[in-house]
């Protein structure tokens, strides 16, 4: 199963959405933290992961707002939180209409988690 997730992860990195590309190239790569894209964690793949901060970041398109999509997200979030990770979500709409605010919120989350760990 692990190799299957790695293959899916590689495919997802090649097919990032325009919102994921925007966040990756214009925000996350500029921060003083190391992020991984489409990172397998257990049986899930998170959009972006910072091991140092124990932070998973998810960008949600329309499929996440269906009943089944919300249920899958809740299950994944519980799984990640049970492993000591914090999960934050942003909608694609947020990225498209409030990019600066999303980046600022990510930076604040990283600083809060860093302070919490010290």
What would you say this structure looks like, in words?
By secondary structure, the chain is α+β, with helices and mostly antiparallel strands. It has one domain (2-117): Endonuclease, Chain A, CATH 3.40.960. The protein is 53% helix and 21% strand. The protein has helices at residues 2-14, 18-26, 67-81, 92-97, 99-117, and strands at 36-41, 44-50, 55-60, 86-91. Strands 1-2-3-4 form a 4-stranded mixed sheet, sandwiched between helices. The longest helix has 19 residues, at 99-117. It is globular, with a radius of gyration of 14 Å. The chain starts with a helix and ends with a helix. The mean pLDDT is 90.
Low-pLDDT residue spans: none
The assigned structural class equals alpha+beta
Q: How big a fraction of the residues is strand? A: 15-25%
The number of helical elements comes to 5
Total count of domains: 1
Calculate Rg over CA atoms: 14 Å
Number of strands: 4
What's the name of the CATH homologous superfamily?
VSR Endonuclease
Order of helices and strands: HHEEEHEHH
Oligomer, anyone? Answer: single chain
Provide mean pLDDT, rounded: 90
Ordered list of secondary-structure elements with their pairings:
Blueprint: H1 2-14, H2 18-26, E1 36-41, E2 44-50, E3 55-60, H3 67-81, E4 86-91, H4 92-97, H5 99-117
Parallel strand pairs: 3-4
Antiparallel strand pairs: 1-2, 2-3
């Amino acid at each position: 199963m692990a190799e299957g997730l790695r293959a899916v992860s590689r495919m997802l990195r090649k097919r990032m959405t325009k919102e994921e590309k925007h966040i990756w190239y214009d925000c996350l790569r500029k921060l003083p933290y190391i992020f991984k894209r489409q990172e397998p964690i257990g049986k899930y793949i998170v959009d972006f992961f910072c091991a140092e901060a124990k932070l998973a970041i998810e960008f949600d398109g329309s499929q996440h707002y269906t009943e089944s999509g919300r249920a899958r997200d809740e299950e994944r979030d519980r799984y990640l939180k049970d492993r000591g990770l914090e999960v934050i979500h942003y909608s694609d709409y947020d990225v498209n209409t409030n990019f600066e605010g999303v980046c600022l919120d990510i930076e604040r989350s990283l600083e809060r988690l860093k302070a919490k760990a010290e």
